[in-house]
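Before going further, learn to read the protein records used in this course. The integers have meaning only within a learned vocabulary of local backbone shapes. To see the layout at work, look at the sequence and tokens printed below.
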Amino acid sequence: MNPSTAKLGRLAWRTIWWAVPAGVVLLVWVPEIDHYRLPGVRVTDEMVRLARQSPHDPVLRELDGFRLLDVSWSDKEQVVRAGERLLRGVVEVPGYPPTRIGMPFDARDLDSPRWQLLLPGLIVPRILLDAYNATGRNEFLEQAQAVILALGKYERRTWLPRGLLWNDHAVANRMNVLAGFWRAYRGHPSYRPEIGKAILEQAARYGQLLAKPEHFTVATNHGVLQNLALLHLSLAFPTIPEAARYKRLALDRLSDQMRFYIDDEGVVLEHSAGYHEWGLYLLGMACRYLTLLREPIPEDWIQKYKRAQRFLAVLKRPDGSLPMFGDTPDSQEELGRSAIGPNAHGGCAPAPDSLSEVPEQSFSLYPTAGYAIWWDGLRGWPNQKNLSQTVAVWSHFAGHGHEHAHEMSVLLWAGGQTWWSNVGYWPYWHAGRLEAESWGGASAPHLASEGPESARSTRLLSYGWSDRVIAIDLERRGPGPYVARRQVVHVKPRVWLIVDHVFGQDTGKTTTIWTAPPDVRLKQGTAPGSYVSETARTSSILRTFVVGSPGTSVKEFKGSLVPFAGWSVTSGIPTAASAVVVEQPAKDSWTVVTWLLDDNPIESRARLSEPRVSYWNGPRDWKTKIPLPSEILEVTRANDQIVVSDLPKRVAVETLPLVPAPDVSRDVTHIRDSFVAAAKKYPAYRNLHDRRVKVSWLLLIIFVSQEAFFLAVGRWRPSYYGRLRLLNALGWVGVGLWLVLYFVPG
């Protein structure tokens, strides 16, 4: 055989031997590449011409306010200053440190944890457009154009996302930014047809991405955002291909989501006061989109919207803050406040004053969603001095968004001050997020070793309220035989009792973590288990007393990672805070925590003694004595009654009957069935990117190792070389099929 021919033959065989492993690696990545691949879209000159005329400017101007990712600016001057800094390559927004970025676009900026959502969400051109609208300076509009087009160019040549490039929330927000740019640019003197065409092509590409079934996040508000973005597209860019189909698709998907996203009580089922406010904003936006599209608004949407407004009024305090359960920030931003309301013509219209700020009643119960919220001192609203809000949470809808392990936690706000709270909205990019989502971030009784995904259920057993006393009784079962029961009794206006009982776990410990905000100073009292909470905001103090069964230990932590305790998120930053950790045997233990709000701490200090538990015969039979400056109260649980007595006078001040909780099992089952049905209809994409990376590295190591082996075989046992190569190739094929079919499927 000709030497050159033999050499070519060996090269050909080697190419084949190497092509098989390369093909296996490619097969590992093909499903993910296909997941992000979009078909081309053809935008004609006629489409662009018509888009410059429709919709009219007033519609685009209104749509510009429908933002899914925004920044709270203090005034227009602050926006303009931020725009000017962006022209110099520095992005600076409230709550974030000034950061230098590549302009008009640098893909490396997508790797920044703090900016991972804002930058791909086109916050940079958003700021520039707002600065342009405030000043009319063309340099802002030109730079916004450069950023948008640079991102679009990068996306068209990218196979796989970097950071949150194609995150559902980020892509949804881009539609608003594109529409805002189109409003400013389509009639601008600098308009160029090729730029107009590029903008419409980019909008059409985002429409494809938002409409792609495997990209739809049906379970959470992110899916709602995707649908709203499609409605935004159909209004702002009605001439692009498939705009009408996107509208129908968005309405169909929203209809499926509304069966479980907001319940019939009007509560957004995402375990958070902040995300309820956000959900109300989104629902109002959806109704307004339908009105602008001249589509009928389902009556149940209108009713849920009205009830959601009332629930927000119950949650929100006079200072604008919200109780920090679940992913709720401590800020008092107004973005989530809906500025839309139903009108007399069956549609929705801007209505900034449509939301009543005063709760309609003092006691509000939401047994399906899992909340009890009550106010004292509403007659003096908005004067905060005599106002108090108590929140009990037992919401738990597996699979829904932003869930924390927090069932049976209790939060107290009184006299304009939060005294006891949960951890709040811990940033996703910050270390400790998983711990904050677990029991260490809430004031709920739990097993010391319990994780957030434990199998459990919580229900309201009974409740009662009067002008003087409010009480609820909750029970949680699971995991396994563990049962925790919590009773919350409020003797108005200044006394609260938290009565806990746990049993059923032969070994182990049960724990409750009470966390104060960072602005509260927590000092030990004169007796073990007693504390005094002080703050510069008010002259009042809160006295806390912890009394428990034998084996109870009470410790203080501040900013502790092990155990995770003593944290609160302030202005988006995890901050060390004082916490009291109660630990007991999990088999059969009880605790009575007493809170006394003292408006005259100097006068009462000498006269007050410690509350004590007179007897404990179980969660339905107990008695506690509470000395106050002007009286001594005795609070008794007697079967299905709470009895409050004035000890010196030996008379019952109040006898409160506890009525059984309403049966909400059918409503809860309907919500869960609707959720499961939607999840089956829109199956979630399994993101196996990290696994594919690890598999690729492992395959590379195997390939390098085998080539070293075959180099030795070719030198020392050449007669075996061909047969071993063939077996090796067959092995690669088998491994490739197993990987694609089972380990990293599409």
Q: What stands out?
A: Residues 89 and 335 are 27 Å apart (CA to CA). The chain is about 40% helix and 25% strand.
